[in-house]
């Protein structure tokens, strides 16, 4: 299936109408329905041909040979990425509703998370999840770049963990594309670079390091452009959020009314994940921002894009909330792939912004 598939305007409109009708009804959609309900100025036969082409492209499929068509995960992905825009009127209404129901000045942050999760579940009709904030206090004590006889470079980081009152040491090997140089010269250059990075990073919490402007650091030490990017990516990889952080969950009963969850076994595996395997669920919901810096605020994983098997009948919509500029937790919604995406995206974004405001 080609992910470069180009849709003309007519095909986009047919795909959008098919998905919207299926989201509203949970019934497979036929060409006759689209003619009658969406006022397309073309014949039922033409619509049928277009739907056939959308099926060939992997965007729609027929659950039974005689039935209409329903969206595939890839069809939903095109719909989310290209065919919908944020609904600003409902976003404003949701924002007002959340502000009225949540008054964080009067409650502890823990109580605020509980209330926010309940409200999010009620407003969306899906499962709402909010992670407790990470303790962002583990900070960098020292960083060292060491040249090895193999020609590789080892990155060693030493951190102060305030939670365990101890010093932690981690190391990893960096593969560089650079030509081998004189060993003494490399060692002295690595020492200069280690000193520079220590001056920039020492005392920063690990979470802060992931959200630094690495392009700016790169520009300051221009002769190491490229290598600093590799170090940044490796530091990003070494920062592991604490997966045992609790997750507040509400709304399971609401989502079980959806027809997608009528199979008992699917529901049981999802419930087991939510209740017993939160340490697996946590890194799926809370992900650190990409280093590129332009990554979208709201992350959406549709069906088979989810890394955990029990979630592959679901869509996850998630966004981080921040303490100042540091990502510390995440707000998420899990529902069927047949989800009211505009509503879910707006709700998650507004709740994350609200919690950031409350924390900062």
TrEMBL record:
<keyword id="KW-0346">Stress response</keyword>
<dbReference type="InterPro" id="IPR036388">
    <property type="entry name" value="WH-like_DNA-bd_sf"/>
</dbReference>
<comment type="similarity">
    <text>Belongs to the HrcA family.</text>
</comment>
<dbReference type="InterPro" id="IPR023120">
    <property type="entry name" value="WHTH_transcript_rep_HrcA_IDD"/>
</dbReference>
<dbReference type="InterPro" id="IPR029016">
    <property type="entry name" value="GAF-like_dom_sf"/>
</dbReference>
<dbReference type="GO" id="GO:0045892">
    <property type="term" value="P:negative regulation of DNA-templated transcription"/>
</dbReference>
<dbReference type="InterPro" id="IPR036390">
    <property type="entry name" value="WH_DNA-bd_sf"/>
</dbReference>
<keyword id="KW-0678">Repressor</keyword>
<dbReference type="Pfam" id="PF01628">
    <property type="entry name" value="HrcA"/>
</dbReference>
<keyword id="KW-0804">Transcription</keyword>
<dbReference type="InterPro" id="IPR021153">
    <property type="entry name" value="HrcA_C"/>
</dbReference>
<keyword id="KW-0805">Transcription regulation</keyword>
<feature type="domain" description="Heat-inducible transcription repressor HrcA C-terminal">
    <location>
        <begin position="110"/>
        <end position="345"/>
    </location>
</feature>
<dbReference type="InterPro" id="IPR002571">
    <property type="entry name" value="HrcA"/>
</dbReference>
<comment type="function">
    <text>Negative regulator of class I heat shock genes (grpE-dnaK-dnaJ and groELS operons). Prevents heat-shock induction of these operons.</text>
</comment>
<dbReference type="GO" id="GO:0003677">
    <property type="term" value="F:DNA binding"/>
</dbReference>
<protein>
    <recommendedName>
        <fullName>Heat-inducible transcription repressor HrcA</fullName>
    </recommendedName>
</protein>
């Amino acid at each position: 299936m080609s992910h470069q598939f180009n849709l003309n305007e007519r095909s986009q409109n047919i795909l959008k109408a098919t998905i919207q009708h299926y989201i509203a009804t949970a019934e497979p959609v036929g060409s006759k329905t689209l003619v009658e309900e969406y006022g397309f100025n073309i014949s039922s036969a033409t619509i049928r041909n277009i739907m056939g082409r959308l099926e060939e492209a992997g965007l729609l499929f027929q659950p039974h040979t005689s039935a209409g068509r329903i969206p595939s995960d890839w069809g939903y992905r095109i719909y989310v990425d290209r065919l919908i825009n944020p609904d600003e009127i409902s976003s404003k209404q949701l924002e007002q509703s959340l502000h009225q129901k949540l008054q964080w000045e009067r409650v502890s942050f823990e109580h605020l998370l509980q209330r926010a999760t309940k409200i999010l579940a009620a407003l969306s009709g899906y499962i709402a999840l909010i992670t407790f904030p990470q303790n962002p206090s583990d900070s960098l004590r020292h960083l060292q770049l060491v040249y090895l006889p193999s020609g590789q470079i080892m990155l060693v980081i030493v951190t102060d963990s305030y939670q365990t009152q101890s010093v932690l040491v981690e190391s990893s090997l960096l593969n560089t594309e650079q030509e081998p140089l004189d060993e003494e010269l490399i060692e002295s250059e690595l020492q200069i670079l280690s000193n520079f990075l220590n001056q920039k990073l020492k005392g920063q919490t690990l979470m802060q390091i992931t959200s630094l402007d690495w392009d700016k650091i790169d520009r300051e030490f221009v002769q190491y452009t490229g290598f600093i990017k590799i170090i940044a990516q490796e530091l990003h990889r070494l920062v592991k959020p604490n997966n045992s952080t609790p997750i507040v969950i509400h709304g399971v009963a609401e989502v079980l009314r959806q027809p997608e969850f009528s199979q008992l076994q699917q529901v049981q595996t999802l419930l087991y994940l939510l209740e017993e395997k939160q340490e697996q669920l946590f890194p799926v919901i809370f992900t650190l921002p990409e280093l590129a810096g332009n990554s979208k605020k709201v992350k959406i994983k549709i069906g088979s894009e989810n890394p955990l098997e029990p979630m592959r009948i679901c869509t996850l919509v998630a966004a981080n909330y921040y303490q100042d500029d540091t990502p510390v937790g995440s707000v998420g919604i899990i529902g069927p792939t047949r989800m009211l995406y505009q509503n879910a995206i707006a709700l998650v974004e507004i709740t994350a912004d609200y919690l950031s405001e409350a924390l900062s």
